[in-house]
Design goal:
This protein is α/β, with parallel strands linked by helices. The chain has helices at residues 42-49, 113-133, 150-162, 173-181, 217-225, 249-253, 275-283, 304-312; strands at residues 2-7, 17-21, 30-40, 58-59, 63-71, 83-87, 96-100, 105-106, 141-145, 165-170, 186-189, 202-207, 230-238, 257-260, 296-300, 319-323.
Length: 324
């Protein structure tokens, strides 16, 4: 048996509870891993709340790092004792579990388990936004919301290394300092001033603040102001949350291309593909090494409910990591 953070009904953070769950032995093509660090992401709150319906009872979470504890038949690339990480497998808020071996990514030397657990989904999100949906080039100007968050900190560093000029928006002076320390050339505290730019504007506007949530007028206000910050031939990128609807009329009237970037879940469908999140940002020195880093905030697993409250209330910076 292993301890797990599970919910038996969908709702607020209070539905999360500590349970005992069976683990068992790994089967064909599987490994059993002992978690050492567990990443917390907005998708976890969507699943818990019911925006993404789940089969109940469900163990929360989708991302973690740990050590291979046992290897099933047919597994050749992993052995007991290997440090691995993964994302996109629901049920990560637990001490131990059995997982498909082909979804595991070996953690490189020099990268801590906490860093690996916190960067895979966020790293893939940044990767597809700046390389696939819009290929950022040297000299481009990028406007990025939630620049002090886990995705924002990785994006700021990566964009800086690409030679882009990043304008980050944040909600406090403390977060402004973090955004600047992680690669943003300019930072706007949207609680103090309107989001607007003079001159030509930005090549790409990124709305990557965890999605638009119903009833959040500040989200809608930021989205309404975002096209005004983009140049006429630029791109406004919206990363929309579940159930959200965007009104493209305003950007189109300005001649700005409006594109929707839903999430990175499609990258999980191919075995080993999640390795890009570690390979591209980490192996090329774009997060986790030297001055470039993702500032994790660690909390113990029984505090998962508070971690969800803080995340939904925008009280966090960097990444939130649960330690079993």
């Amino acid at each position: 048996m292993a301890k797990a953070i599970r919910y038996h009904k969908q709702g607020g953070p209070e539905v999360l509870q500590l349970d005992d769950i069976p683990v068992g032995e790994p089967g064909q093509g599987q490994v059993r891993i002992r978690h050492t660090a567990i990443g917390v992401n907005f998708v976890d709150t969507y699943q818990r709340s019911g925006l993404y319906p789940m089969q109940l009872p469900a163990v929360a979470g989708n991302e973690a790092a740990g050590v291979v504890d046992a290897v099933g038949p047919g597994v050749k690339d992993l052995k007991k004792g290997d440090r691995v990480a993964y994302t996109g497998l629901p049920g990560s808020y637990c001490e131990m579990r059995v997982v498909p071996a082909d979804r595991m990514v070996k953690i490189p030397k020099g990268i801590s388990d906490e860093q690996a657990a916190s960067m895979m989904l966020k790293g893939m999100t940044v990767h597809y936004l700046i390389h696939s949906t819009y290929k950022v080039k040297k000299g481009d100007t990028v406007l990025w919301h939630a620049a002090a968050g886990g995705v924002g900190q990785i994006a700021g560093q990566w964009l800086k290394k690409l030679g882009a000029i990043t304008i980050g928006t944040v909600g406090s002076d403390e977060k402004a300092k973090l955004a600047k320390a992680h690669g943003c050339k300019h930072v706007i505290n949207y609680c103090d001033r309107e989001l607007r730019r003079e001159g030509e504007g930005d090549h790409q506007g990124q709305e990557a603040a965890g999605g638009l949530r119903r009833g959040r007028q500040d989200d809608l206000g930021r989205l309404a102001r975002l096209p005004a910050a983009a140049r006429p031939d630029g791109v406004v990128r919206q990363r929309l949350g579940p159930g959200a609807a965007a009104e493209p009329r305003h950007p189109r009237e300005q001649g700005v291309a409006l594109r929707h970037a839903a999430d990175a879940r499609h990258l999980h469908r191919q075995p080993r593909r999640p390795g890009e999140a570690l390979d591209r940002p980490v192996q090329r020195g774009q997060v986790g090494q030297g001055e470039d880093r993702d500032d994790e905030r660690s909390t113990s697993s029984p505090d998962a409910a508070q971690a969800h409250r803080d995340l939904e209330g925008r009280q966090t910076t960097g990444s939130v990591v649960l330690i079993p």
